[in-house]
Amino acid sequence: MNRSFSKSQTLRCVDSSAVEVKSKYGAEFRRFSLNRHKPGTFEEFYNLLLQIHNISNVDVMLGYADVHGDLLPINNDDNFCKAVSSANPLLRVFIQKQGILLG
């Protein structure tokens, strides 16, 4: 069966100001988006991840996969902004309990 799609049925356009975030803690994944141009601070992002994963009582380290697949830390405003700006379109964030090596 051949179908033609109307404009209302076309795929959603990707908003270039949005960064899709996929975070992983243990076996749990969560997805949400951030504004690429105003992502907030590292502290706000860290607290958001703790809340989303319901791990507010756990000390964790954050890392992200860069465009080459290398795992880099997110632990301050500078490398948080670098992670967000390099996401195209997905930012993969890995959360590990403090004291456990990432990767």
Low-confidence stretches: 1-13
Percentage of residues assigned to helices: 10-25%
> Quick one: CATH superfamily?
Phosphatidylinositol 3-kinase Catalytic Subunit, Chain A, domain 1
Q: Helix-strand pattern, N to C? A: EEHEEHE
Please, what is the oligomeric state? single chain
Count of DSSP H/I helices: 2
The CATH top-level class label: Alpha Beta
What is the fold named in CATH at topology level? Ubiquitin-like (UB roll)
Please state the CA-atom Rg, rounded to the nearest Å. 16 Å
User: What's the structural domain tally?
Assistant: 1
Structural class: alpha+beta
Question: Globular, elongated, flat, extended or rod-shaped: what is the shape?
Answer: globular
The main β sheet shows up as: 5 strands, mixed
Organism: Leptobrachium leishanense (Leishan spiny toad)
Subcellular location: Cell junction; Cell membrane; Cytoplasm
Protein name: Par-6 family cell polarity regulator gamma
Keywords: Cell junction, Cell membrane, Cytoplasm, Membrane
Structure, explained:
- With 103 residues, the chain is an alpha+beta fold.
- The protein has a single domain, classed as Phosphatidylinositol 3-kinase Catalytic Subunit, Chain A, domain 1 (Ubiquitin-like (UB roll)).
- 20% of the residues lie in helices and 33% in strands.
- The chain has a five-stranded mixed β-sheet, covered by helices on one side.
- It is globular, with a radius of gyration of 16 Å.
- Residues 1-13 have low confidence and may be disordered.
- InterPro entries: PAR6_homolog, PB1-like, PB1_dom, PB1_Par6.
- One of its GO terms (cellular component) is anchoring junction.
- Keywords: Cell junction, Cell membrane, Cytoplasm, Membrane.
- It is found in: Cell junction; Cell membrane; Cytoplasm.
